[in-house]
Amino acid sequence: MRKLNLSFREVTMKDVSLLHSWMNEKHVIPYWKLDFPFEKYKKHLETFLADDHQKLLIGEIDGIPMSYWESYWVKGDMIGNYYKFEPYDQGIHLLIGHKGYLGKGYIYPLLLTILYHQFQVSETTKIIAEPDIQNKKMIHVFEKCGFTPIKEVELPDKTGLLMTCEREEFERRWTDWQQNKF
Predict the structure, then answer these.
(1) What pLDDT digit, counting tens, does each position of 47-74 carry?
(2) Rounded to an integer, what is the distance from CA 138 to the centroid of its chain?
(3) Considering the entire predicted model, what is its pTM?
(4) How far apart are CA 60 and CA 63, in angstroms?
């Protein structure tokens, strides 16, 4: 595989139409459930952008927007009610929005890159995810990137699988990927 030019940029309200279109993709709807009418989604995005416990990002490959990311602090998030978290634990949500990028293996380098940035906070020793238990592909992706399943959690919008990625495991996966062993 050729070297990918991966980049992330912060979401702005200029992205609302793009994100709204992604939330209405057949592969996204069952897991995100944000296939709202445009004005309702716009209000949702405004609320999320104003929430300082998270950062919303657009993932790009070669400058083409193709994925959406929510990087957040567990402290201040509802998932903190489901396990004993440390003050600097972080979490991640993601989706491939552009269906032309599905099933091509891009999610691994993108997720590893986001995790790398999250672990730049020296106090962060753990990153969590809670994919829908029905989303076997995403669970596999998280496991491949160093996440370990912990337990099922009943969230307001889904039954999720709480998963954690510890710093040491991530660093091993990151090194393997950097050395093309991944």
Answers:
(1) 999 999 999 999 999 999 999 999 999 9
(2) 10
(3) 0.92
(4) 5
